[in-house]
Every structure is written in structure tokens, then in C-alpha cells.
Design goal:
It catalyses: uridine(13) in tRNA = pseudouridine(13) in tRNA. This is tRNA pseudouridine synthase D. It is an enzyme of class 5 (isomerase). The structure is a single chain. This protein has about 350 residues and is α+β, with helices and mostly antiparallel strands. It folds into three domains: about 1-25 and about 125-150 and about 315-355, TruD, catalytic domain (Pseudouridine synthase); about 30-115, TruD, catalytic domain (Pseudouridine synthase); about 160-315, TruD, insertion domain (Pseudouridine synthase), CATH 3.30.2340. Helices cover about 30% and strands about 25% of the residues. The protein is built from nine helices and 14 strands. Strands 1, 2, 3, 4, 5, 6, 13 and 14 form an eight-stranded mixed β-sheet that branches. The protein has a four-stranded antiparallel β-sheet with strand order 9-8-10-11. A hairpin with a 5-residue loop joins strand 8 and strand 9 (about 255-260). It is globular, with a radius of gyration of 22 Å. The two termini are about 15 Å apart.
């Protein structure tokens, strides 16, 4: 899968996705009440998937995993701090809980079970190694660009399985050439295909933005086989990611969908980080792009028997902090991303992707 990134740079560094060099911490959507029938645990884990961690705790207290709540799935190859919930009656049993890869950091009562997506975002801590000499200055420069502009919101490789190709089974399920009985497995694989199509669409839009950096609107229309005049008003936009007529936008970081009508005005609002373009996860009951945006989106808008959605195509990276440890050649980064976004998008822009 070819993914295109906004900066044509090449930075060399080493990043190991390991608990020593990669930490992810959930930022709750709201404060917990301190009362109620549910117990919210702040849990630190390493070398386990969220499912494996839930199994360990559910087996300890003697309940089914489905009776527990969680806000998001976290990386196995990182140190992760996340929130889960279970019935408050198990508080005493949890005081005796001990595991070499799981630590319960805190417990607090709450009125509701935690649901998937009940997050503001995630805070990432990443250590880059072998950052030598001029590489440090180059990383500083790219990080400044990221702080000012944001990054594309590709789905990360972990969405596509160990071999990166589970979306192919999702496509076969949709085409009817593969049969799987288990509903959850089917929906997961078909969802991976939705994610693949989103990434392909985003790569096409990134290609358009790259072309407009180098060529005229008319030349870009020719390269992409778009109607004459369809990119009018795009090249002069202040953002790297260029909006086109008929794009679907969302208020940022939360809010309703709407369609671009005044290109100049919406590009200004995008530059001010008030709104952001929203790409298609194809399926049922989904708002479709119109006009030029609809033409570009059409090849990736397959009929899929799942509910579709719109997903931010461009996200902001906030609370960025960096430390350079010269004697170790370590470049340490802290930053916050919205929920559902991948730290690999920041790393890939820092490293320099395909262009």
C-alpha cells in the first residue's frame, strides 16, 4: 500500500516499538464521578493486547470479558495506560490482584460503564535513537511544520494485521468469494477493507496536494484526468492539504458534517483549525462528497454491507514537547493526538514518506 506524506524529506533515526521507547496514555473524555455501581481502573500494561489484559483481569475476578468496559484498543508493543471498568462489587478482589505485565494504578467509582470511544485522545511518549548531528536540526524543523500544519490521518499498519493484508480477506467477503460464519470476524475484516479504501483515497488526495505545490491547476487537472476548471481556487489555499469543491468537512475536533460551498472561506477556516476535511469509510448511511471531491472519491466508494462513516483526513498534533539528549543521541517526543489516530502518522512525516 503506497502512502504519501506531506514533506519530501529524509530523516534517519531508529525507533523501536517497545515499552522502553513507546508509551501511550489515554486522556478520558470526562472526569469520573467518585460514586456509582461501576469501578473504573487506570491500568498500565506491557507486552499484552487490550483483549489479553481484559482476559487476565476478568479471570481474576470471575466475570465474562463482555461485562467489562474499555474506551480503546491499545498497542501490544508499547507501555500503555488506559481506563477500563467493571462492576464495583469486585473492588476487594482487585486489591489482591498481581501480574508481572499489568499494574492497577488507581480505582474510582463511576455511574456508567466505559464505552468504546469515550476518549478525548491519547498522549504519546516516543524515544528516537541514533539522532546524530544535523538530523536533530532537521527533526526540529519538521516538528515545527507538524505543529503549525498537522498530519494526514492514515490508518496505521496495525489496522491491517501482522502481514498487513487482512483487508484482502475483507474484500473477498464483500465480493462473496470468501465465507466466514463468525459475525465479529467478518465485520472486523470488512472494516479493515473500509480502512484500506480510506487510505487509498487519502493517498490520492495527498498526490493532488503535492502536484499543486509544483504545477498549475490546469496541469494538475490534466495529470489526474479531472474536468477543466475543476481545481479552480485550490493552488492559492494556505494549507498543504488542498480542499476541492464538494468536499465533506467536519468541525474540529468534534462536530457535524457539511459540504464545502465557498472554497476560499472554508480553506481559511481549515487553516485556522476550526474545521477539517473528512474522508469516506464506505458503507451504508454515509454522506457522500459532491462535485470535484465526489469524482475523486468515487473509485473508493464501494458498496459494503456495513454502516459507513466519515473520518478526519487531516488532524492536529498538540501539546508537542521535545528533548534532545546529546550524549545518547536520543530525541524524546511527547504529543497528543485525537482518539482513533496513530502515532505512526507523526513518525512517518518526521522520517519522510513516499512522495
Amino acid at each position: 500500500m503506497q502512502l504519501i506524506y506531506p514533506l519530501n524529506v529524509k530523516n534517519e533515526f531508529v525507533f523501536n516499538s517497545s515499552p522502553r521507547d513507546f508509551t501511550v496514555e489515554e486522556i478520558p473524555l470526562y472526569e469520573f464521578t467518585g460514586e456509582g455501581e461501576h469501578l473504573v481502573l487506570q491500568v498500565r500494561k506491557k507486552e499484552l493486547t487490550t483483549w489479553e489484559m481484559l482476559d487476565v483481569i476478568s479471570n481474576h475476578v470471575g466475570i465474562r470479558r463482555r461485562d467489562m468496559g474499555y474506551a480503546g484498543l491499545k498497542d501490544k508493543h508499547a507501555m500503555t495506560i488506559q481506563y477500563i471498568s467493571l462492576p464495583a462489587k469486585f473492588e476487594e478482589k482487585l486489591k489482591a490482584f498481581s501480574h508481572d505485565k499489568i499494574k492497577i494504578l488507581s480505582m474510582v467509582l463511576h455511574n456508567n460503564k466505559i464505552r468504546v470511544g469515550h476518549l478525548k485522545g491519547n498522549r504519546f511518549k516516543i524515544r528516537l535513537k541514533k539522532v546524530l548531528g544535523v538530523q536533530k536540526d532537521k527533526l526540529d524543523s519538521v516538528l515545527k511544520w507538524i505543529d503549525e500544519n498537522g498530519v494526514p490521518n492514515y490508518f496505521g499498519n496495525q489496522r491491517f494485521g501482522t502481514d498487513g493484508n487482512n483487508w484482502e480477506d475483507g474484500k473477498k467477503l464483500i465480493e462473496g468469494s470468501l465465507k466466514i460464519r463468525d459475525r465479529k470476524t467478518k465485520e472486523f475484516l470488512m472494516g479493515a477493507y473500509q480502512s484500506y479504501l480510506f487510505n487509498q483515497w487519502l493517498s490520492k488526495r495527498m498526490e493532488l496536494s503535492h502536484l499543486l505545490e509544483k504545477f498549475t491547476e490546469a496541469e494538475t487537472e490534466q495529470v489526474l484526468n479531472l474536468p477543466k476548471g475543476s481545481l479552480k481556487g485550490t493552488k492559492s489555499q494556505p494549507n498543504f492539504f488542498k480542499l476541492v469543491e464538494g468536499d465533506v468537512m467536519m468541525h474540529y475536533p468534534y462536530g457535524r458534517l457539511f459540504t464545502v460551498e465557498n472554497l476560499e472561506e472554508e480553506a481559511k477556516r481549515f487553516a485556522e483549525k476550526d474545521i477539517a476535511p473528512a474522508g469516506l469509510l464506505p458503507g451504508k448511511k454515509t454522506k457522500r462528497a459532491e462535485g470535484t471531491a465526489g469524482l475523486i472519491e468515487s473509485p473508493f466508494a464501494e458498496e459494503i454491507n456495513l454502516n459507513g462513516a466519515r473520518r478526519y483526513a487531516w488532524i492536529q498534533v498538540t501539546d508537542i514537547k521535545k528533548t534532545y539528549i546529546e550524549e545518547k543521541a536520543h530525541y524524546e517526543l511527547n504529543f497528543v493526538l485525537p482518539k482513533g489516530s496513530y502515532a505512526t502518522n507523526v513518525l512517518d512525516v518526521l522520517r519522510g514518506g513516499e512522495a
